[in-house]
Amino acid sequence: AQWARFKHVSKDKSVLVVNHHGPLPVDTGGLCGEKATAWNILKTVGTRADPSDAVVVVGDFNADVGTATVQELSARLSKLLTGRSFGGVDHVFSSCGGDAVVATRNLDDELGAGGSDHDALDVVLRV
């Protein structure tokens, strides 16, 4: 996974963003398995985030909503949006949920695929 922390200096708020590209074959978790894939993502979050950070985890997980990978992540983070391509393997998760979610949309509905075989997912959060 790739990650970055962003800080709004005047508001003193930070966001940890993690981008994950999941293992193949789809819905298997690869060599480590579905749960281990989720735990490795959560380990990255746990070792890189400050306690006050908002956390956003995005990517092509190569795992649909019925997999242990997505279920494990959903038990600890809010699943905010799932795409439709390849049975729904693109996801946005966050430690923010409820009132923090300003908007969610699949940009493919408005703009088309734009040359990608995956959905362009858009989530706006208030942190």
Characterization of the model:
The chain has 127 residues and is of the alpha+beta class. The protein is 22% helix and 35% strand. The protein is built from three helices and seven strands; from the N terminus they run ββαβαβββαβ. It has helices spanning 34-48, 68-76, 108-111, and strands at residues 2-8, 13-21, 54-60, 78-82, 90-94, 101-106, 121-125. The strands form two sheets. It has a five-stranded mixed sheet, with helices on one face. Helix 1 (34-48) packs parallel to helix 2.
Topology at a glance:
Elements: E1 2-8, E2 13-21, H1 34-48, E3 54-60, H2 68-76, E4 78-82, E5 90-94, E6 101-106, H3 108-111, E7 121-125
Parallel strand pairs: 2-3
Antiparallel strand pairs: 1-2, 3-5, 4-5, 6-7
Helix pairs in contact: 1-2
Concise synopsis of the structure shown:
The chain has 127 residues and is an alpha+beta fold. It has 3 helices and 7 strands. The protein has a 5-stranded mixed beta sheet, with helices on one face. It has a two-stranded antiparallel sheet with strand order 6-7.
| Secondary-structure element series | EEHEHEEEHE
Helix-residue proportion: 10-25%
Mean pLDDT: 95
**Molecular shape:** globular
Provide the structure class: alpha+beta
Radius of gyration: 14 Å
Strand order of the largest sheet: 1-2-3-5-4
Percent strand equals 25-35%
Main sheet overview: 5 strands, mixed
- Low confidence ranges: none
- Please report the number of helical segments: 3
For the secondary structure, the number of strands is 7
The N- and C-terminal alpha carbons lie at a distance of 23 Å
